[in-house]
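Hi W., the zinc ion complex you wanted:
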Amino acid sequence: MSAFWEDFVWLAAAVGSNPLLIQGPGGNVSLKDGDDMWVKASGRRLCEALDRNIFARLSRRAVLEALDRGEEVFCVDGGGARPSVETPLHALIPQRIVLHLHMLDAVIRSGLPEGGLAALLDGLSWRLLPYARPGLPLSSLVRKSLEEGGQADVHILENHGVVVAAEDGERAIFLVNELIRRLWLAQRPFALPDATSLRARNDAGWGIPVQAYPHALAFGEGAAALLAGGPLWPDQNVFLGRKICVLGPKERLRAALEAFEQDCGFMPVFAVVPEGGVLFSPKIGASAAATVSALGQAALRLPGGCAPRPLSEAALDELDNWDGEKSRKTLDGA
Ligand SMILES: [Zn+2]
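Structure:
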């Protein structure tokens, strides 16, 4: 078990350190050994898997029994860790290793009318699941997929990511590499922010992020398409809210924030200055910042600047009213 465990932890850290696969505390992985199951704890980051224990240990049977009773919340394990909200999904899938990744290229392609998934994934054992809220609704879809079609190596989750299942680490990393290779979207070059313009608009003491990707939201067709649409995947809604604050021509930050708060009912943690760059609130948390970065990367990867289908208003309402995400939001300080 120990060599197997070590492989698994390296795998968790490797996928967790790739922002095209995982952003901030998103995604989760699990390992089964008989009835024992280790699942990433909620709010922990996969990239820290080698530094500390990020897993909660559970009985698979107990998780499946709770699922049959329709129970969403799982009690903390002996070490005080609260297992991921996707624990039932991990328990349902029979393979020993399960990786749930918020793979950006899969999120984008699953929302494009011409995503071409069938041709790209030809030859793999895979299935596409329509969007369902994380937690119990998603688990129900996975259960139905397994009951009707038997086990699969890959589930593509519309507007959410992927689930990869394998009996060992070697097979799991093979499948992840196949998905990266087959779903890969070419990235356009990014522009540098216009710091002079950003400083001129910034009358609220916000910061200019030093990373390049957040600023990609200020330039080009892909960015415009993302700014106009709603959240693409659940974590975007959880950490950034359902609308993005975009400054009008010559508008200053303070005025834009006031108008935004009145309009949308919340204070944003970042704002976009078109053709200038992005400004970060001093209150932005690490998870929100990682999500802005991912959105910037998405803007550079949208094929032809076309807009993928965002989450529906009903899906966003469901996420906003779900207790499962409130703790992650609070942890991020957003
Ligand atoms: Zn997820």
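The pocket of zinc ion is lined by residues 100, 102, 134, 160-161 (CB under 6 Å).

W.
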